[in-house]
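> forwarded from #structure-qc
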């Protein structure tokens, strides 16, 4: 083995979404407004994961309007339906489904009035990109006009929706049951180069394949996977948070090293779309699952490269060198015994 050794490692993962042992739930309101625009109200929390874009896409598809014509309204939980927290990879699954159900409720009201106005079956109505039409006919109009007709007939096309994970509970004796409604599966491969002189580990490439149910926003999903991998790389190799007697001894980012653009390898992602049958949208989630297999894949790649197992994170150069020294010492200790044989 030369100074620089390369190896590859693989790790697989699963992650539960929408808890069922205790009830998870979310609610939303949807309204088609004058001008053919739409408004969505739900107690969503945007923390940078792109949920507002996803909800606008869902509403646009369900209502038949353009995404840019959808407004996500006041999300103050004092004035909007409860949507619960931003965590557990649940926002698209729980809030997205509640928004879809609310939009479908609003469309039922709109379609009923327009079907009556045109003298057609409501089931024949389709809408997309700000237009509504009856299949098999030449009847077509802008959504703006359809909303105006609906309101002149005394109906406001507004809907409400809630989505709840199927509560199953757990056996109080043995704890068996179904704690999650849906599961996300993933696999990642890491390629690393280990400097046996310095102990430094460089990640050369990452390959990630994840089952996301249905990708509402494929670019956004890929971005979340890439972000999870970057976070996992930091966890695996750099981020060393120290506690001493219950107090942090890592007082700043000068010592708490984070990945920079120079540390990020080429990341290759592939999405597997296996829609969840109990989700109106078929979507699952990817926020936290993208992080789970990254560090194990990197640790396995280090073992493939130099034959040592790093069993605590991060795999700092000091730990790698110590493991290599222990391996060399063990090999030397075994040499006399082999020679005696």
């Amino acid at each position: 083995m030369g100074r620089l050794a390369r190896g590859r490692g693989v790790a697989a993962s699963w992650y539960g979404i929408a808890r069922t042992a205790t009830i998870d739930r979310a609610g939303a309101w949807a309204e088609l407004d004058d001008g053919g625009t739409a408004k969505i109200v739900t107690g969503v929390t945007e923390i940078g994961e792109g949920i507002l874009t996803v909800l606008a896409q869902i509403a646009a598809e369900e209502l038949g309007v353009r995404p840019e014509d959808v407004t996500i309204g006041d999300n103050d939980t004092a004035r909007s339906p409860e949507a619960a927290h931003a965590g557990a990879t649940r926002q698209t699954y729980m809030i997205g489904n509640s928004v879809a159900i609310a939009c479908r409720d609003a469309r039922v009201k709109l379609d009923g009035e327009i079907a009556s106005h045109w003298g057609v079956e409501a089931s024949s109505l389709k809408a997309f990109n700000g237009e509504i039409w009856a299949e098999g006919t030449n009847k077509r109009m802008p959504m703006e006009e359809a909303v105006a007709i609906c309101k002149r007939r005394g109906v406001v096309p507004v809907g409400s929706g809630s989505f709840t994970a199927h509560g199953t509970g757990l056996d109080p004796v043995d704890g068996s049951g179904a704690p999650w409604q849906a599961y996300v599966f993933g696999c990642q491969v890491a390629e690393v180069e280990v400097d046996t002189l310095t102990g430094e580990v460089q990640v050369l490439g990452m390959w990630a394949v994840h089952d996301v149910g249905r990708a509402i926003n494929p670019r956004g999903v890929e971005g979340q996977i890439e972000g999870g991998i970057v976070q996992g790389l930091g966890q695996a190799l750099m981020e060393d948070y120290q506690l001493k007697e219950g107090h942090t001894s890592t007082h700043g980012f000068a010592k708490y090293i984070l990945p920079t653009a120079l540390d990020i390898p080429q990341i290759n992602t592939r999405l597997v779309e296996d829609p969840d049958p109990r989700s109106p949208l078929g979507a699952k989630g990817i926020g936290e699952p993208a992080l789970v297999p990254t560090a194990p894949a990197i640790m396995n790649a280090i073992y493939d490269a130099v034959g040592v197992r790093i069993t605590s994170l991060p795999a700092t150069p000091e730990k790698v060198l110590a493991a290599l020294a222990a391996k060399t010492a063990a090999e030397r200790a075994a040499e006399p015994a082999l020679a005696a044989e």
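QC bot note: Residues 19-164 form a domain with the Aldehyde Oxidoreductase; domain 4 fold (CATH 3.30.365.10). The CA atoms of residues 53 and 143 lie 21 Å apart.
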